[in-house]
Specification:
The chain has 584 residues and is α/β, with parallel strands linked by helices. It folds into 3 domains: 17-135, no CATH class; 140-270 and 389-567, P-loop containing nucleotide triphosphate hydrolases (Rossmann fold), CATH 3.40.50; 275-374, no CATH class. Helices cover 23% and strands 21% of the residues. It has 14 helices and 21 strands. The strands form 4 sheets. Strands 12-11-16-10-17-18-9-19-20-21 form a 10-stranded mixed beta sheet, with helices on both faces. Strands 1-2-5-4-3-6 form a 6-stranded antiparallel β-barrel. A 3-stranded antiparallel beta sheet has the order 13-14-15. α6 crosses α8 and α10 runs parallel beside α12.
Length: 584
């Protein structure tokens, strides 16, 4: 069957004409203005098409997205004329016009549309062509347009085929960064886009705020009745994640090393590392993972001590070690041993030659400062420590909770676990199956200035992860404070609500001016998504989580009040990921 003359697919109803290209504004191959016809309207993010016949008779179709809409009184000259027009004294006419940014030329002949050409609102196959969905081999559902039509990402720019990594920016508690990152994972695992590989694909999520991510395996009993239909439109089931393992730090001073979580008491494994792990795997530098390490002389002491521990330790069972005849079972004992060994006047000289007392003392101050925050994470006083390891193979999704930890302890956990995941992919020698990593507060672990062991790993992930099959989904409040190379290597850029000052930074140059302004007022659950094949970012919405984000949504009783990090004040409540949304 031949295609209809208007270019729609067989069986598709013709797209409605909503206006014509105007001649009072210049039309270019990149953008043009459309006069909106009477009885019609165009809004931001609408997709439109216009056809032109070239001088040689060849048809050309130009597709685009509405980026701005304006309305004026034609015939009025002064602002006060609006009152005369309203009273019928002054003749004038309301004119609406929409600015369109071109997204596709078929064929690729880059000429502007001519004034007077009819403009249609794209629907069905025309919309898929305009947004290049019809050209994408692997479509990943990533949300819904304002008129609840599916929006897709090209998986090839996420799985390493042509690009990798996602970067999400937005104000904390409003932009729903982690919620959207989790939604992308849910879509990856449940849309069928990964095919048979989905079963072996892994995801590692660092839970840095509250305990919201400790219920991914529970259905959301408070999900509104209209939400399953939104999932259906995206080709997704509305339900929880199917395979999740949860890990949390142990309770401080608990000889049984019970997991330190308040809202979930079952199916959570506590994690820590042994003294043997610290010596063998050279984990000590992660205790000094602040942005100033490369500018501090004590960094040399850190490397010298790491080398001495690696050479000197002897395993004695259950993760304990013997160093020069001294058995070490606790982090405090290890700190005391290192304190003795780095004494510039002592016989061992672990600090290294020609290292001054001031440099050694700077190292020791930071090492002793780590004691109260890390002693429950590095220990050899618990039987069968192998049962308290972060096992990335146990389930499809691994959640490492660390919201109760001090910032220094958080950096230690992120550095060690991320290094474990990176080495695991390096040893496999294969990019498939993929390993996804979700990390919020990226600016803390890979700041723009300075150097640290964690930043080095994240740079490796950003620059070499595509070939290794490890994909970073990073999030932060301010992309301007994150290492440039990490942001630049992210093929997919996502923006939620932005601070007005942050929106003016160069890191958001991919946003047109109107969308930069719009990013300062978008509501929770709305994201502006940019992908390489589309020249303009698009605004998408995504459904409520179909998995529980708190104990009440999982149908469990509320937790009893508990102490916060370091046993001090109670932990601050987690930000509501959908604050401002209508109640289900």
């Amino acid at each position: 069957m031949d295609a209809p003359a208007d270019g729609t697919a067989p069986g598709d109803a013709p797209s409605p004409v909503v206006g014509r290209v105007i001649g009072t504004e210049p039309s270019t191959p990149l953008e043009f203005w459309v006069g909106v016809g009477e009885g019609s309207y165009l809004q931001l993010d609408d997709v439109v098409v216009v056809d032109r016949v070239l001088p040689d008779g060849q048809p050309l179709r130009i597709s685009g997205v509405v980026s701005q809409v304006r309305a004026v009184h034609e015939g009025a000259r002064m602002d006060s004329d609006v009152f005369l027009v309203a009273d019928g004294v002054l003749p004038a006419r309301v004119s609406e016009a929409a600015q369109v940014m071109a997204t596709r030329f078929d064929p690729e002949i880059f000429v502007p549309p001519l004034p007077g050409e009819p403009v249609r609102k794209a629907t069905g196959a025309e919309r898929e062509d305009a947004l290049l969905f019809s050209q994408m081999r692997s479509l990943l559902p990533a949300g819904l347009s304002r008129d609840e039509e599916p929006f897709y990402l090209n998986l090839e720019f996420l799985d390493g085929t042509r690009g990798a990594h996602v970067n999400i920016s937005g104000v904390s508690g409003v932009a729903t960064k982690t919620t959207y990152a989790t939604f992308l994972l849910y879509s990856l695992f449940h849309s069928g886009v990964l095919g048979a590989e989905a079963a072996n694909t892994k995801a590692l999520i660092f839970n840095v705020k509250g305990e919201d991510l400790l219920f991914l395996d529970k259905p959301n009993v408070a999900l509104a009745d209209d939400q399953p239909e939104l999932y259906r439109r995206l080709g997704l089931p509305a339900g929880p994640f199917g395979s999740v393992a949860f890990f949390a730090p142990p309770v401080r001073d608990d000889p049984n090393a019970s997991p330190d979580v308040a809202s979930r008491q079952r199916d959570v494994t506590s994690f820590f590392w042994t003294i043997e792990d610290l010596c063998r795997d050279e984990l000590l530098p992660f205790l000094f993972a602040d942005a100033e390490d490369d500018r501090q002389q004590y960094a040399m002491v850190v490397h010298n001590v790491v080398a001495q521990l690696r050479r000197s330790y002897e395993p004695v069972g259950d993760g304990a070690v013997a160093i020069d005849g001294r058995v070490v079972r606790t982090f405090d004992e290890l700190v005391d041993l290192i304190d003795d060994k780095v004494d510039p006047d002592g016989p061992d000289q672990w600090a290294g030659r020609a290292i001054g007392a001031g440099t050694v003392n700077a190292f020791l101050r930071r090492l002793h400062g780590a004691r109260p925050h890390v002693r429950h994470l590095v220990r050899a006083d618990v039987p069968r420590p192998e049962a308290h390891r972060v096992d990335l193979e146990r389930a499809q999704v691994t959640v490492v909770d660390m919201h109760n930890l001090n910032d220094r302890a958080k950096r230690f956990v992120v550095g060690v676990v991320l290094g474990q995941a990176f080495r695991r992919k390096e040893r496999s020698g294969q990019a498939r199956p993929l390993q996804f990593v979700v990390l919020d507060e990226l600016n803390k672990y890979a700041p723009r200035e300075g150097f640290s062991p964690i930043k080095e790993i994240l740079l490796d992930v950003a620059e070499r992860g595509r070939s290794l099959g490890i994909v970073l989904i990073g999030a932060q409040q301010t992309a301007s404070e994150v290492e440039r190379r990490i942001v630049a290597n992210s093929a997919i850029r996502v923006v939620g609500r932005l601070d007005a000052a942050e929106a003016t930074r160069g890191e958001y140059g991919f946003l047109p001016p109107a969308q930069r302004q719009r990013a300062t007022i978008v509501k929770p659950g709305t994201m502006i998504v940019s992908q390489p094949e589309l020249p303009i970012p698009l605004v998408v919405q995504f459904p409520f989580p179909a998995w529980a984000t708190r104990a009440s949504e999982a149908g469990e009783p509320p937790p009893a009040p508990a102490g916060g990090a370091d046993g001090a004040a109670p932990t601050e409540p987690a930000d509501d990921p959908f604050a401002g949304f209508p109640e289900p």
